[in-house]
Amino acid sequence: MKRGFLLTLEGPEGSGKSTHSRLLAGYLTQKGIQTYCTREPGSTALGEKMRQLLLSPLYKNMSVRTELLLYEAARAQHVDEIIIPALNKNITVICDRFYDATFAYQGYGRGIDPSIIKHINDFAVNKITPDLTILLDIDVNIGLGKSLHLSKDSFPRGEGDRIEQEDIEFHKRVREGYLNLAQKEPERIKVVTVESEISKTQLEIQKHIDDLLRRNNYVV
Ligand code: TMP
To answer: Which residues contact 32 (CB under 8 A, 6 or more apart)?
Structure first.
């Protein structure tokens, strides 16, 4: 039986992942591929609760170990409740962030040993790996500026969530971390530079998706 693809979008703050997830879903739907858009942390009822805890600036004293475990707990629920059932129904899942974010933010950003992250993450993901990951690369100053302007998750515009409020050096480490991950896994992680025109960036994403479809015998 055919199984859906797991496509993940990653990138520093303000890289446009959610916009491109939606556009990509439209592109695949046109090709007759059924899609489901989801995000981390969140998407399940439990995961959304954990998202609030993780992103609220109220919990500035959250320890980095607690932070890692909460992201992974939200992921475990997401994998079991949404991702695996959808893939089994031959639905292609487009996920706005997945485990590369943990290596980038908690690993490169916070300095947690990647072998510890891998151990906990392996337990959370239950052998699920993305078929393709698009890394939307953007200068951190530009990205953070955009992201703070959006006032998502109902935090006041311009103030940002707990992670966005980290200093610029943290966000630079995250970006470098993502680029290192892409270098280590070039087959899976494709770097797409964020252009000022959304359609140009989306076209680059679609080229990588078409390659994946061709490799899997779809007529593109
Ligand atoms: P976003 O979904 O709006 O990008 O917000 C999620 C935030 O959580 C973002 O700052 C990245 C961060 N994050 C981690 O630090 N680790 C993770 O494993 C994930 C999934 C997200």
So the answer is: none
At 90-117, the pLDDT tens digits run 999 999 999 999 999 999 999 999 999 9
Which atom of ligand 1 is found nearest the CA of 72?
18
User: Cβ neighbours of residue 152 under 8 Å, at least 6 residues apart?
Assistant: 161
CA distance 194 to 202: 9
- Would you call 205 helix, strand, or coil by DSSP? helix
* 46 C-beta closer than 6 A to ligand 1: no
Q: Is 108 in the pocket of ligand 1 (CB under 6 A)?
A: no
Q: What angle do CA 208, 85, 27 make, to 5 degrees?
A: 30
What pLDDT shows up at residue 193? 98
Output the residue whose Cα is nearest ligand 1's atom 10: 163
ω before 41 within 30° of 0 (cis)?
A: yes
What is the reported pTM? 0.97
Sequence-ordered strand ranges (E) for 40-193: 92-96, 132-137, 189-193
Cα–Cα distance for residue pair 20/30, rounded to 1 Å: 15
CB of 71 sitting under 6 A from ligand 1: yes
Atom of ligand 1 nearest to the CA of 105: 15
- Structure tokens, 8: 């993940």
Distance CA 40, CA 17 (A): 11
Residue 155 pairs with which residues in a beta bridge?
Answer: none
